[in-house]
Amino acid sequence: MSASIIAITNQKGGVGKTTTAAALLALLARRGARVLGVDLDPQGSLGFSLGLDIEHCVTIYDVFRGEVEPEQAISHTETCDILPSNILLSGAELEFNRPGREFLLKKALSRLEAKYDYIIVDTPPALGLLTVNAYVAADSLIIPMAPEVLSLLGVSQIKETIEGVRNYYNSRLQVLGILLNRYNARFNLNREVLELAGQIAAQLGTRVFEAKIRGSVATAEAPAQGQSVVDYAPRATTTLDFEALCDEVAGRRSPAADRKGGDN
């Protein structure tokens, strides 16, 4: 059985993509799932946030260049396995210009997906080649956004890219939902953005997740400690919110128990 591949995406930066990816990886691993994180952002934030020295390890860039096999590029952290990236990936748009370049990630993950239950892909804040690769490889998308009007604009612009990928490369691609990060229901703007997000979700044929991620100091502190926020601050309100999101994404089942049951 192949992994469920989920891309975390929004062309706007600062909306919590990496925080969301790291939290889901940690929570799914805690539930017994075999998980792989894939960092497609040249800033390398996902690997860094989970404690990797991203400047001195083999990366997804080396895989795309054909210099190493995907298995050789996997780094192991206390949380999960990671296919990391670093600034070398920033030249991908110009360097990888051969036919079929939209399938670089799909080809790499085809070698790995049978070994995992979930593969979580962290995408860059752009709708270029790297993000298209994520959409082509993924089964589904989670779209985090901040409760700001400009963040809403970013979400609405994703629609065209999703439709293009569905039409030409990956007809099964679905949007699991829009996720509100740094949400505070006491603020009028937050409530207004929630309503507008619902309208955009309807256009995308999806929903706004019931789970809303509240902000916390721990969210900013965790990456410096090489940990996801759920490991760094297990009792924080942010962690509780991410646990609720994980329930919505994966249900309350234990993948490890499912595998054991399947062996009987």
Automatic annotation (TrEMBL):
<dbReference type="Pfam" id="PF13614">
    <property type="entry name" value="AAA_31"/>
</dbReference>
<comment type="similarity">
    <text>Belongs to the ParA family.</text>
</comment>
<dbReference type="InterPro" id="IPR025669">
    <property type="entry name" value="AAA_dom"/>
</dbReference>
<dbReference type="InterPro" id="IPR027417">
    <property type="entry name" value="P-loop_NTPase"/>
</dbReference>
<comment type="subunit">
    <text>Dimerizes in the presence of ATP but not ADP; ATP-binding is required for double-stranded (ds)DNA-binding. Interacts with DnaA.</text>
</comment>
<protein>
    <recommendedName>
        <fullName>Sporulation initiation inhibitor protein Soj</fullName>
    </recommendedName>
</protein>
<feature type="domain" description="AAA">
    <location>
        <begin position="4"/>
        <end position="175"/>
    </location>
</feature>
<dbReference type="InterPro" id="IPR050678">
    <property type="entry name" value="DNA_Partitioning_ATPase"/>
</dbReference>
